[in-house]
């Protein structure tokens, strides 16, 4: 984890229960004598992450419809910290402006980015119900001035229809769908449950996440390449384009394509959360003069 991540150590469950007493019934002592929760239980996981937001990020309200993806806070905030390492080198005055692509019903990246670094966000999603849920969360936490939402009306587009000619952002971020279809997503969940020693009989019922959150025609690779292609259509409107990449084998083809599209700098930032390895790929199309002008704004 990033050195600034507040969750490098074991969860302080006593602290978490104080801010969210509903978590208490979900805590048990495992065979190793440690207090923990059942990470295969969606309700337990959602309560844990809700308590983390309340205890460490002053997010008092975080409710979204059942069946939507419940993101793990430690991993999501790691992306925020590594992105901040890129942004702080710009030495800009004022609050950085960030575009969150596919914010989801939980609106997690804007919540964390604003709490940790006072970033201001425009957050997009192609699902009207997700936008409505995110709007409710933002309103209940009094963040309507810091976080704006926009509906992507064409689910096949990413930046088109969102970025206006006058828009500029210090960075984008995106947690893309990783699977090609529902069957592939369920297979991944089955493997995860087996690793936790849990029954896989009810995997389809216990599986959290909506279609647009989890799979995309052509899978992760197709989404990544659409994302980087569309970024090349708005080269001077964002300093750092970034995206989370699950499969490391995709990085090589991304670098090749970005070079052809005119990226002047490409960075790969490796991240780890327990046994899980992932990476953020970041790039800019700005030349040295354009970068200097941006930093002098």
Average pLDDT taken over every residue: 88
Helical content stands at: 25-40%
What are the segments in which pLDDT stays under 50 over at least 5 consecutive residues?
Answer: 203-207, 209-213
Number of domains: 1
Assign the CATH topology: Rossmann fold
Structure description:
The protein is an alpha/beta fold and 297 residues long. The protein has a single domain (69-295), classed as Vaccinia Virus protein VP39 (Rossmann fold, 3-Layer(aba) Sandwich). 39% of the residues lie in helices and 18% in strands. It has helices spanning 13-19, 42-57, 73-87, 108-117, 128-140, 182-195, 203-206, 211-214, 219-231, 250-261, 288-295, and strands spanning 28-29, 35-36, 97-101, 120-125, 147-151, 169-174, 238-245, 265-273, 276-284. A 7-stranded mixed sheet has the order 5-4-3-6-7-9-8, with helices on both faces. Strands 1-2 form a two-stranded antiparallel sheet. Strand 1 and strand 2 (35-36) form a beta hairpin. It is globular. The two termini are 32 Å apart.
